[in-house]
Amino acid sequence: MVSILSFLILLSFQAFGVSGADSGDLVTAAYLFGVPHPPGYPLYTALGWFLTRLPLFSVAWRVGLLSSVPHAFSVGLVYLTVRKITGKQSVSLIASTVLLGNYLFFFYGVTAEVFALLDFFTLALIYCAVSWFIGNEPKYLMRFALLSGLSLTHHQVIIFQLPAYLFLGWLLRKRLSREFRHIPKMLFLFSCGLLPYIYIPLAARHNAVINWENASTVRGFIDLVTRARYGTFQAATLFGTTLTERLLGIKAYFQFMLTDFYWIGMTLVVIGFVWLARHQKVLFWFILTAFLFTGPLYYFYASYPILTSFSLGIYERFLLPSYVIVSIVLGCGITGILESLGSISRTALARKYRTLITAAVYVFGFSFGILMLVSTALKFTGLPEDRTTAYLGIDLLRTVEPDGLLLLLGDSPLFMAQYQRYVEKIRPDVIVLYEANLRSAPYLETVKKNFPGLALPEPDGKNLLTDFIDRNRKAHPVYSNVDYEKPSGTEWIPRGLLYKLYDEADLPTYNEIMSEDRLIWAGYHLDEIKSGILLRYKHFVLTDVLNPYAVSRLQLGKLMKDHGFLADAEGYYTDGLSVGSDQYVSEIYTQLGIVRLALRKCPQAEEAFFKSKETAYYDNPKVYYFLSVVYGNCFSDQEKADEYLKLYEQKKSKVQTPLENL
C-alpha cells in the first residue's frame, strides 16, 4: 500500500518531456534501440525500449516510468527495512514519508533518469542483507545474488556499497561459513543477473544513430562498460585534484544534506546511528559503512567541481544512494526518541502522560514528513506540461536551414536536440550528430548507415571531423554550437544559438549578421523558458538550458566588438545578462566593461568590472588589469591604477593567464 500510494503521487507529477543532463540521451537511445553514453545502462535501456512501445502519452513519459515505479518501490523498501529493524509500523511509515518528501528523491522519481533504479537496487540489497541477518533465511542470500548481478548492469556507483557488504560478511563470517553450500546457486543467480549486458552488442549491431563506442566489438564493449573515454576510475572528466578540493566536496555533501533533511532530519539521523550502535551493533557498522562509502567518501573520491548551478545539479544527483540509506537511519532515530521518552516517563513523569507524549512524537514525525512532501510537491507544480527542455531543442533545430547538418557538443544542447529530432520528429530534414564522436571511424560508419547520402572521409585520415565537414558542406548547410575546427577557406559566423559555416568568399556583412540574428532570435522561446518551471523553483539540473542563449549573446557581442561595432556589442552583452545564466555572467560582465571602457562610459565600465569580480568562480587577474586601466585612463586616479596593476601582477604570476589571449 505504501508503494502504491507513493506511485500515484509521483505519477501525478511525472514529466511528459525529458529533463536536463543525460535524460535526452537515455530516452532517445531507448526509443531507437540504441546505446546511450557510457557505461551504456543496458538494463535501463532495454526496459526503456519495451516501455516506449506502450501507446501511452509521450515517449519521455513512458521511459519516466523507470523512475516513478522504482522510487515507489524504494519508499516501500524503506518502510519494510525500518519495520524489520525496529518492529514499529508507524515509525516505518514516517521514515518512508520523509524519503518521499525529499526534494532530490522526488525530482528523480518524476523525470526520466537512471537514478531511481539505482536507489531501488541500493535499498533492495540492503533489505536482503538485513533480512538475512535478522531471520537467517537462505532465500535472502539468493535474492541478494540475483539483485547484485542486475545492479551491475545498471549503474556502476553501486560498487561503492561493496565495502559495506564485505564488512558485514566479515562480521558474520562464522554464520556465513555455514552457507557455503549455497554458493553455486548464488553464483548462478548472480550470472543470470548479468544477462542484460546482452542488450549492448545487440543494440550496437542495430546501428541506431545513438550508438556510443561501437560496442558490437569486444574492444568497443569494454570501452563502453568501463567508461574508458571518461577514465574508468574517474567519476567525471572534470574533478578536483587537491586535498582541499576533495575536502570541500565532503563539506558540500553535509551542506546539501542539511538543506534536504533540515536540522530535524539531521538530528534524527544522529540519534538513529546511536540507537543502532546500542541495539543492533552489527547493523550499525554495516549501515554506517554503506552510508560513508556512498556519501562522504564517494564525494571525496569523485571530487566534482562545484562552480555553476548546473554543476551543482550534476553533484546533487549522486547524493541519492546515501539519502535512501539515511532514511532508514532516520526511522531508527525516531525509535530511539520513543524508547528514551518511554524510559523517562517511567521514572520522572506521571504514567498517565506517557501515551500523550508518545502520540506527540508520532504527530510531530508525521507532520514533518507530510510538510516536506507538500513543500516539495509545490516545487513541481506544472512540471508534467513544462516544455523548458523541449524549447531549447526546438530553438536549436529551427536555427538550421533546410537539409542542414547540425553538429553539437555539450549534454544539454546535444541530448535535447536529439530527442526533438529523432523522437518527436521535429525538423526531420536536419541531421543532428555528436561532434566529438565524428573523430571516430566506427561512429562515422554508424552515421553512414543512418544517413547514406552523407560523404565519409577516409577512415585512416588524420582530421576526420574537418574532412567530414568539408566533404558535406556543399550539399548541406553546416551548423555547430562550437567554432574551433573548420576546413581551410571557411569561417564560422554566429547565427542565433549556433554558428554557420561560410566560405570566406561568401561571408555576410556585419549588418546582415545582426539583421538575421534579430529575425531568428525573435522566434526563440527564451521568454517561455524563463516563465516556466525555473520561475517557480531553480532546479539546478535544468539551469543549463539557459546557457546556450547566454553564450550566443556573448559570442556575437565579441564579434561586434572586434570589428568596431561597440554600441551593438554593448547591447548583445546586456541581452546576455538578461538571460539569467550564471555560467557566463562573469565573462559577459568583463566584455561589457571592455566595451564601455572603449566608449568612455567610465562609471559603467567600473561597475561592470566589479560585477565580473563578484560573480567569478575564481579570482581572475584580467579584471584587476582592466580596473587599473579604468582608474588610470578614465578617472585619472594613478594611485588606484597602480594599486590594481600591482594586484594584477601578483595574481597573474599565480595563474599565468596571458593577457594577449583575452
From the alpha carbons, calculate the radius of gyration and give it in angstroms. Answer: 28 Å
Task: State the shape.
Answer: globular
Query: Which secondary-structure class do the elements indicate?
Result: mainly alpha
The first-to-last residue Cα distance is 61 Å
Q: How many DSSP E strands?
A: 5
List keywords for this structure.
32 helices; transmembrane; globular; 65% helix; TPR-like_helical_dom_sf; 5-stranded mixed β-sheet; disordered C terminus; mainly alpha; 662 residues; DUF2723 domain-containing protein; single chain; TMEM260-like
Written account of the structure:
The chain is mostly helical and 662 residues long. The protein folds into 2 domains: 2-379, no CATH class; 389-534, no CATH class. Helices cover 65% and strands 3% of the residues. It contains 32 helices and 5 strands. It has a 5-stranded mixed sheet. Strand 4 and strand 5 form a beta hairpin. The protein is globular. It starts with a helix and ends in a 7-residue tail after the last helix.
Topology summary:
Elements: H1 2-11, H2 23-32, H3 42-52, H4 59-86, H5 89-101, H6 103-110, H7 115-135, H8 138-152, H9 162-171, H10 173-177, H11 183-193, H12 199-206, H13 218-225, H14 243-279, H15 281-294, H16 296-302, H17 309-317, H18 320-347, H19 354-379, H20 388-398, E1 405-408, H21 411-423, E2 431-434, H22 441-450, H23 464-472, E3 478-480, E4 490-495, E5 498-503, H24 510-522, H25 526-530, H26 533-536, H27 547-562, H28 566-578, H29 585-598, H30 602-615, H31 621-634, H32 638-655
Parallel strand pairs: 1-2, 1-3
Antiparallel strand pairs: 3-5, 4-5
